[in-house]
Structure formats: C-alpha cells, structure tokens
Specification:
2 copies of one chain form a homodimer. By secondary structure, chain A is α+β, with helices and mostly antiparallel strands. The first copy, chain A, has one domain: Pnp Oxidase, Chain A (Roll).
C-alpha cells in the first residue's frame, strides 16, 4: 500500500490545490480528530424523485475502514448497504481568518472527502468489536467498563463498514493573505483560533461515585 | 407565512420524531449559530458517472434566504446555479452522551436539513450586501471597518441565494437514557458538554494597534 490515496474525479482538488493532500497520514489524522462525519447520498422519495442529502453521524476508523451504525430502519445505512453511490465528508473548524478586505476573509479548517465501498457487517464478533470502537472514541477504554451488550442490542443495530478507496484532505491554516497594498489599512487582521472544548462532565442522577471518565484526547479540556 | 415549514419527503423526521421540529424559529436559531453548512449535491464526472458529495462552506441567513459564495469556477455553486437538486445540512455538536451500556451512548446535537431554490445573485448592490453579511457573521460590524470592495472582487465572486422551501431541525439534549435495570451498573454516566470556543486572537505581522475585533456572539470566549 502506498502512502497516498489514488485520485478520483470526486476527490481531485481543483480550487486551491496547494491546500490539498492525498496522504493517508494526513487524512487519517483528520478522521481521528472528528467526532462526526456527513454521509452524502441519493435516495428516491415515494413520488419517484431523486433527492440528495448529507446526514451527520458518528463514526470510527480502523485502518482503511470507517464504521457507521444505526437502527435497522435507518435510511442512510439502507442506502449504503444497497451499494448506492455515496461519499463521506469530515470537517474540522480551526479559526476565523479576518483580513483587511472582505475578499480575503476565510476560515482555517481541515476537511476530508472520501469515497469507498460500503458493506454490511453481519459477523457478530466483528460487529461487537466495531460497536466497542465507536464507544471508545468518545471516552478511551470506555466499553470495558460498561454493562455487556445484550444479544438483542447487537441484533437491532445495523453496522456498515466503508472501505476507503479514494480520499483527499484540504487544509487552510495561518494568517490572512491580504494584498500588499492593503496591509497598511487600519483594520485589525489576523486569526481567531477556534476549538471544540469539553467542559466539566455532568453526572446523571444515578451516579454514586465521582469517577469521571477520560475524554477523547483530541478534545481540549475547558474549565473542569 | 406560518411559523412552521411545510414537510417534504426529504425533511420529514422518521427516526426519533420527538427530537424534531419544523418551527422556523428553531431552524433559524441553529442556522445562525453555525459557521459552516454542508451542501449536498450530485454532479456528473468527466466519465459521465453521477457522483454525490457534501461540501463544507460558510453561509449567512437573511430571513428565509441563505447566501453562499465562492469563486466563479466553484463546482458546488455551478451545480446550484444550474438548478440541480441539492440540500443543505447544518450540524452543531453539543456533547458526548455516556451511558452505562454501549447501546445508549449518543451525542447531544442540533442539526438542520434544508431544501430550497437556488438562484444566482447578479445585482451588484444585493451582491455587496450579501458579501458584507457573510463577513459580519465572523465578527459583528466588521465589513464597515474594511478596505472597500474592489469592483473586480465583486465580479470574480459568485454569489448564490438559497430560498428555503422545506426545513427540519433535530435536537438531542439532556442525560443518557439508560434502561431502568442498568442504572445501578457502576459505570459513570452523564454528559460531557462540548462547545466551540474562540481563544485569544492572533494579530498578523502588519497590525500596529491592538484593537481586537469583536467575535461572533455565539462563540464561547476561552482564555483571552
């Protein structure tokens, strides 16, 4: 396996290609930081009209496979399981880029677009393992501390594996890029960094001991 | 105009309808907090194959219209301007929901899915006004302090208005919903609140005065 994904028409970076990357390590790092992806797909409504939608969902990565899950009747999973075209987008927002002209305003961000093959995971052991991975993304090693899964819970959960075929990342970082003539304009210009912060966990009413779980390492801890 | 959006096949909430809303005020509040939306659309690649993708982009709302913008050659805007099917998704992440069983783990979130009619804005005054609105979303009243727009900047920027026709919101909030039999299990359970936080602005190398601009009010201020 090479270090870069092959390029497809969908993942090819046309605008600002200098911000792009097809490197697996760059794509993986963005995937592993994000808590949510958007599944884009087409479905046919009851009138027979094609509709296109992007649905947010949690996911977990294992090597070159992403796992998504949901209820048996979940439309997104149904579309994926049937082999219909889809793609996956992950977007992290890193900052507001405030320039001296409206034109050069921007956002700092890291995003990934992926296409691949979706397959339903039916093997129970593989299913339980992926479901544990989805939980452990929210809090490291959490699954081991939980009430073991019931058989019926495994049955009613549909699990889809997406084997990544093509992927590209796009990253904007750093200060605004004002035109040389504009830098003497008196507006403040620069970057306002943004990050997703976890604040103090709120125990539910049944918790007896204050053994607060660890939080996913990519989340900045705010006031605890 | 009623207070609720009409329901379509695309925006109808099927899973957990109790979490859903078609109220304009609920949808507007989510739109106005989000910095980025995902445009989902279909395009035909050079081989003639249909591809589906969700592209992140900044946007601004004015009444029942969303504005998105980009370069003339931007594929997403081109697809929208041509009247192809599309939808808009906005997702805000509010917290990790840690239950005592893997099955009841969840996220707290607020999301919106919208369909509507896209039209290109050609009128210069309307275009300048929408471009100013896009900038002012990042920092209140910012556009007034900027170097005025050049004519060529207005020319090379493509601006698309999306008139909302159907929209629905979905919101999960509050503690985990463990089964009654599970609440004595010793795992910690509760919510880890998440929020997007702005940290201290970083001036670029040309800034002479520390007149830091105001930040969009929906962003929590971290250490400044």
């Amino acid at each position: 396996m090479t270090d870069a994904y092959p390029i497809s028409d969908l993942t090819k970076l046309k605008r600002h290609p200098e911000r792009g990357s097809y490197d697996r390590s760059v794509v993986h790092a963005i995937l592993d930081e994000a808590l949510v992806c958007h599944l884009a797909y087409v479905f046919t409504d009851p009138r027979g009209t094609e509709q296109v939608i992007a649905m947010p969902t949690v996911f977990a990565r294992e090597g070159e496979t992403l796992y998504v899950h949901g209820a048996r009747a979940n439309r997104s999973l149904d579309v994926l399981a049937k082999g219909a075209p889809f793609s996956v987008t992950v977007t992290l927002i890193d900052g507001l880029v405030l320039a001296r002209s409206a034109f050069h305003h921007s956002m700092n961000y890291r995003s990934v677009v992926i296409t691949g093959r979706a397959r339903e995971v039916e093997d129970r052991e593989a299913k339980v393992s992926a479901m544990a991975r989805l939980v452990d993304r929210l809090s490291p090693d959490r699954n081991a501390s939980l009430r073991p899964m019931h058989e019926w819970e495994i049955d009613v959960t549909r699990l889809i594996a997406i084997d990544i075929e093509h992927a590209s990342a796009k990253v904007r970082s750093g200060p605004p890029l004002d035109a040389p003539d504009d830098v003497t304009h008196p507006s403040w210009a620069g970057v306002v960094p943004l990050r997703l912060v976890a604040s103090a966990p709120i125990a539910d009413e049944h918790v007896r001991e204050a053994n607060v779980p660890p939080i996913a390492p990519q989340l900045s801890a705010g006031a605890r």
